[in-house]
Amino acid sequence: MQYAVDGNTATRFTDGQSQVGGEYFQIDLCRDLYVSGITVNDTVDTTDVATSYEVDVSLDGICWKSVFNSPTAASTDQLVTFPAVSARYVRYIQTGNDSTVPTMPWFSIDELTVQCGTAPADAGQ
């Protein structure tokens, strides 16, 4: 799993199986931060992008909140943004099913980074 966050697109995370939905990559930020997006780079393994996807966040790793979802395939180099939300954990979830695709690509991530932002203006209200 460390290969998706090592700063090197020549290494990658992959689940090694066809996408059926529910596969995910999770990052523990080790403390609560305001998160405002993720960047997912699949420019080396261009056929292994998520068929469709969502981004969930959590403060405790148990209760999750969806902050972004897309019914379409991810691009090979994408920035996903959403209003800043407090989170310790971030999940990038592959939600599609590629069983009808002849090559049945895997769910892979060449590099993933989390964008941290500032508290929303109404966070203290």
Helix content: under 10%
Strand content: over 45%
* End-to-end gap: 38 Å
Largest sheet: 5 strands, antiparallel
Shape: globular
Tell me how many strands there are: 7
Determine the mean pLDDT. Answer: 88
Poorly predicted runs are none
Indicate the radius of gyration in whole angstroms: 15 Å
Order of SSEs? EEEEEEE
Strand neighbour order, sheet with most strands: 4-3-5-2-7
| Individual helix count | 0
Report on the architecture of this protein.
By secondary structure, the protein is mainly beta. 0% of the residues lie in helices and 52% in strands. The chain has no helices and seven strands. The chain has a five-stranded antiparallel sheet, with no helix packed on it. Strands 1-6 form a two-stranded antiparallel ribbon. Strand 3 (53-58) and strand 4 form a beta hairpin.
Give the helix/strand layout:
Blueprint: E1 13-18, E2 23-41, E3 53-58, E4 65-70, E5 77-94, E6 106-109, E7 111-116
Antiparallel strand pairs: 1-6, 2-5, 2-7, 3-4, 3-5
Name its key features.
single chain; about 120 residues; mainly beta; 5-stranded antiparallel beta sheet; two-stranded antiparallel ribbon; about 0% helix; globular
